[in-house]
Amino acid sequence: MSATPANTTPGRGSLGAETGPARAWRWLREHAVNIVAVLVLVYLLIPIVLIFVFSFNNPAGRYNFTWVGFTLKHWAHPFHDTELTKALLESIKLALLATVISTIIGTMMAIALVRHNFLGRRVANVLIVVPMATPEVVMGASLLSFFLILGTSRGFTTLLIAHVMFCISFVVVVVRSRLIGFDRSLEEAARDLGADSFTTFRLVTFPLILPGIFGAAMLAFALSIDDFVISNFNAGSTVTFPLYIFGAAQRGIPVEVYVVAMILFFCTVAAMGFATFQQRRAEKMTAMRPEQEEAPDIALPGIA
Amino acid sequence: MVDSIRRRATAYFLLAPGALWLVIFFVIPLYFMAKLSLDTEIPGTLHYQFNWHWANYKEALELYDTQFFRSFFYAAVATLLCLVIAYPLAYVIAFKAGRWRNLMLFGVVAPFFTTYLIRTLAWKTILADESPVTEFLHTIGLAPSGHILYTGFAVIAGITYNFLPFMVLPLYASLERIDVRVLEASKDLYASAPSTFWKVTFPLSLPGVVAGTLLTFIPAVGDYVNAEFLGGASNSMIGNVIQRLYLTQSNYSSAAALSFVLMVVIMVVVIIYIRIAGSEALMGQEAV
Q1: Minimum-distance CB partner of B219 among A135, A148, A149
Q2: Which pTM value belongs to this model?
Q3: 10 Å Cβ neighbour count for B177?
Q4: From the centroid of its chain, how far is CA A114?
Q5: Contact predicate B274/B282, CB 8 Å
Q6: What would the DSSP string read from start to end of B76-90?
Q7: B49 contact partners, CB below 8 Å, separation of at least 6
Q8: Distance (Å, rounded) from C-alpha A225 to C-alpha A231?
Q9: How far is the CA of B27 from the CAs of A128, A254, B24, B30, in angstroms?
Q10: Which of A38, A57, B10, B198 is most exposed by smallest CB count within 10 Å?
Q11: Residue A192: HSE in the Cβ half-sphere, 13 Å Cα cutoff
């Protein structure tokens, strides 16, 4: 963090005459906002550190809330608890399917909204925003009402339907922002060179929006695998990872849950790192084109 | 002409799967829930009959008005706390972090990488009696009884923590867009640091403030995980009630009525708020 002398009033306290405490006070005042920021960051990370530490805990009973002693045994056999493993696999299967479906139809929607003008575009935009502004309890409850009235039994299928439903909006928003910040002249060039619209899409548009699609897919996966509220309403007897934790919370959480949470954490961090690396590479490749002067930034609406 | 028809057809083809999914599994369920909220159960069966039974609303609201107001109160306090806590962090990331920026942004989203429920359970350990945090807060007089867990304080703390990134990210996004030259101009014109902040920086960051408060407030009102894990019997929120009525008591009509009221009240609050805070800043990007 760079120190900014901007906040000091010029002329106050010439450096030589300053006493120790005065200097410390001045330093503190100049850096106050930085210190607060770091403290907030620490606050955000404390629970993660705690989960990590408690994944090495060795509690006597099933309650992993107070520190007892250090052990590696839960890291050695994180998938020892069959109930937990089953729930985790269920969650992964569900998240993968929900991600694939919502990414495909969400991307299609984003393309329609950015690239096409049609009757009902406003309605479509509202349809995408409203689910994001609805509390999860309401979404979960209304979907359950729907299934109850239709007499549909709840299970994996209803969970998949629900997860795709709440992921679509987020996919559309992410892919759309990528499409908006996109140099249209590249597509025009392809057309001028005789490519039909499908070839243009396959060879030009798609590769360029791919990082956006990838980011959207990651977001959808993260939302799906972590969803508790909507799943709780529509799961029937199917148990996902968050539902397992909620159930287990009443009778005490096995330490393996903390281990699995940390494994998921590290996997996500690795995926994030990989995505950032890919994005950097993609940016480098576009930057190699001559005469590209910040066109994507200017194309972003809402800034001007 | 043919080309424009074909383009339009393509547009609807691209739009159809997603739009249909949202209509069938989001819009229609809302209608079904509204209908269910006006049903009465046929005694002895599990079947419901639609008969404009508005009394469901009256009964549900009379029974659960405390939880209803509590939810809005907890959510409002948590949103305000989030704003106060998040602003300095977003400010530093946007203007002062330099090469630490990406690392700090990573820190902001890192909580999302651990499961929501486990993060909340972690606070159970942090706020337990005899934990260093509780003892510290007791010493400085913020927790006079020495207990934090299973109080409203713990629930608000949990909500504040869990939705903080939703506040930091939009704040950062709008602060980062501010042209630094505007701030320099203010300084050149001899504005003091506080007056630069209140007259230039803060007004320019208002879109982020509006987006952040909405992204925090809306899920916070409906949240029931924090109240379930960190609160006691006297801290339950409307989400807990809806969940219990639907899933354990099978009192679907009351539950549907409560969900519907919750949705409508949130919508009204949000609309009034956007009217006051200026809709253009928020919706500018969405309405493209």
Answers
A1: A135
A2: 0.84
A3: 15
A4: 23
A5: yes
A6: HHHHHHHHHHHHHHH
A7: B39, B40, B41, B42
A8: 10
A9: 11, 39, 6, 5
A10: B198
A11: 6
Q: Which residues on B lie below 8 Å from A37 (Cβ)?
A: 88-89, 91-93, 96, 104
**Which of these, A96, A167, A117, lies nearest to B15 by C-alpha position?**
A117
Which residue type is seen at B140? Answer: I
Q: Contact A135/B262, CB-based, under 8 Å?
A: yes
CA-based nearest residue to A7, from B98, B99, B91: B91
Select from A246, A251, A250 the least CA-distant residue to A235. A246
CA dihedral over B112, B115, B120, B124, signed as positive or negative: negative
Burial of B178 by CB count in 10 Å (0-12 exposed, 13-18 middle, 19+ buried)?
A: middle
| CA atoms of A29 and A14, how far apart (whole Å) | 16
- Backbone φ and ψ of A191, nearest 5°: -65, -45
Q: List the one residue out of A170, A252, A12, A71 whose CA is nearest residue B18.
A: A170
Residue pLDDT, tens place only, A203-243: 888 888 888 898 899 889 989 999 999 999 999 899 999 99
Write down the pLDDT at residue A162. Answer: 96
Which sign does the torsion angle of CA B148, B151, B153, B157 carry? Answer: positive
Three-state DSSP state, A303: coil
Bridge partners, residue A57, by sequence:
A70
Q: Any idea which residue has 């006070």 for tokens?
A: A25
Chain B's closest residue to A103, CA to CA, is B18
Distance CA A149, CA A35 (A): 55
* Residue (of B237, B229, B236) closest to B127 by Cα position: B229
Q: Which of B35, B117, B176, B249 to mutate to test the interface with A (most CBs of A within 10 A)?
A: B117
Tokens 């089953």, residue located: A86
Q: What is the DSSP letter of A9?
A: P
Nearest residue in chain A measured CA to CA from B47: A149
Least confident of A14-28, B14-28, B53-67: A14-28
CA distance A222 to A167: 10
For the stretch A45-68, what's the b/e string if a residue is b when 16 or more beta carbons lie within 10 angstroms of its beta carbon?
ebbbebbbebbbbebeeeebbeee
Q: For residue A171, give Cα distances in angstroms to A58, A105, B46.
A: 41, 9, 38
Sign of the C-alpha dihedral, residues A215, A218, A220, A222? negative
Instruction: Please tell me if residue B233 touches chain A, with a CB cutoff of 8 Å.
Output: no
Q: Which ipTM value was assigned to this complex?
A: 0.85
Torsion of CA B13, B17, B23, B28, to 10 degrees: 130
pLDDT tens digits along B123-137: 988 888 777 788 888
Look up residue A68 and give its DSSP letter: -
